[in-house]
Amino acid sequence: MQVNRELFDHVMVPNYNPSEVIPVKGKGSRVWDQKGDEYIDFAGGIAVNCLGHSHPNLVNALKEQGEKIWHLSNVMTNEPALRLAKKITDATFADKVYFANSGAEANEAALKLARRFALDNYGEHKSKIIAFNKGFHGRTFFTVTVGGQAAYSDGFGPKPADIVHCDYNDLETLKSLIDDNTCAVMMEPLQGEGGIISPTQEFAEGVRALCDQHNALLIFDEVQTGVGRTGHLYAYQGLNVTPDILTTAKALGGGFPIGAMITTTDIAKHLKIGTHGSTYGGNPLACAVAEAAFNTVNTESVLTGVQQKEAMFRELLEAINTKYNVFSEIRGKGLLLGAVLNEQFEGRARDFLVASMKHGLMTLVAGTNVVRFTPSLVIEEDDIKAGLARFELAVADVVNG
To answer: Does 221 participate in catalysis according to the annotation?
Structure first.
């Protein structure tokens, strides 16, 4: 059987348009395709591969647990899930954990919990959810409607009701929308898909204060920002603004599918037995790998290393920009960075991505105007330098047409 890009068009639903390159092996921040061509990975599986490829801690955890027990069901609990939950609660504001398989599922659980909490405490009228334009919270029908990009939720029939949006960092509009019928405000503590947009400190603190004022829960979607990505274990810790509910996925499993919703005991008690569930959520195999990833990332050396690597990325990207003048700014935090294209190159982020691939570099975009970098949190400095040298060649290609 010829396993190539053409086969994709024959056997896969056409909702993706993947690259011609099919990677077959990865080690650290390097990846090799079917032809043996090598790439430096600044994409990290969209902020998932927090420890790069084939990290020994993850491989060992997978092998070890794989020979013990993979799956039970939530009729029973298991040791890896309990250990991981204890570690997450010890390291965060939360007391309780619900495990799922993805960020969308963690967000679905968070939204259902917020609605149930409000119903139990205040009554049916308190159901409004406020979220932000350009936000992204997953692709289930509930989460995609809460996400602030209508293009992703239009065309599937009637949407879940009582969801409203305003611009990120616009505290005044939020003040006009929030009221005592609001059950939750959902936000990313740094917008990812929407263009790598950081909140102002005033905005983050203001959202928290408004939620307190109106007895609304504050949900932080940390699917992309969580588990070390910003140089803190979770981004809320760098903002000093604590949510009521937080969701985490992507980097949590280092590449193995797992998500979690975490919250306080007082809020968690409203998801009573039978109100929500997941067949695979919290299975021993996923939790064992996630525990290894969490243990590895949640160290001072890795988290301070992220901040040092951010400084190196910024410095080298600025040097490229001094030469070619393509970016208006470099924004983001830690190793969730976006190079924003200036007016001359507006809307051409994908051109930079395609050119980068030709020079052996994997990058991402965040919208049409931002080239996004989400490499491994433990990427070696030599790989950063080599990757950005390749990026400079890609920039030169785009600039020179």
So the answer is: yes
Instruction: Classify domain 5-54+300-399 at the CATH superfamily level.
Output: Aspartate Aminotransferase, domain 1 (3.90.1150.10)
* Fold classification of 57-297 (topology level): Aspartate Aminotransferase; domain 2 (3.40.640)
The active-site residue, picked from 99, 128, 134, 221, is 221
Residues at the annotated binding site for N(2)-acetyl-L-ornithine? 139, 278
- Which of 42, 132, 136, 220 is catalytic? The answer is 136
Q: Would you call 96 a catalytic residue per the annotation?
A: no
Element (H, E) at 371: strand 370-373
Residues 361-382: what's their mean pLDDT? 98
Q: Is residue 87 annotated as part of the catalytic site, yes or no?
A: no
Annotated binding site: 103-104, 136, 139, 221-224, 278-279
Name the active-site residue from 250, 327, 373, 391: 250
What backbone torsions phi and psi does residue 118 show, to the nearest 5 degrees?
-65, -45
Give the model confidence (pLDDT) of 15-49 as tens digits.
999 999 999 999 999 999 999 999 999 999 999 99
Q: Parse the chain into domains and list their residue ranges.
A: 5-54+300-399, 57-297
pTM of the model: 0.97
> What is the secondary structure of 185-246 as a DSSP string?
EEE-SSBSTTTSBPPPHHHHHHHHHHHHHTT-EEEEE-TTTTTTTTSSSSHHHHHT---SEE
Q: Which residues are annotated as a binding site for pyridoxal 5'-phosphate?
A: 103-104, 136, 221-224, 279
Q: pLDDT tens for residues 43-66?
A: 999 999 999 999 999 999 999 999
Residue of 22, 96, 78 whose CA lies nearest to 266: 96
Specify the 3-state DSSP secondary structure of 175.
helix
Q: For residue 98, what are its two tokens?
A: 């619900």
- Looking at residue 294, its pLDDT comes to 98
Taking the C-alpha atoms of residue 318 and residue 314, their distance in angstroms, rounded to an integer, is 6
Query: What span, in angstroms and rounded, lies between the C-alpha atoms of 347 and 345?
Result: 6
Query: How high is the pLDDT of residue 315?
Result: 98
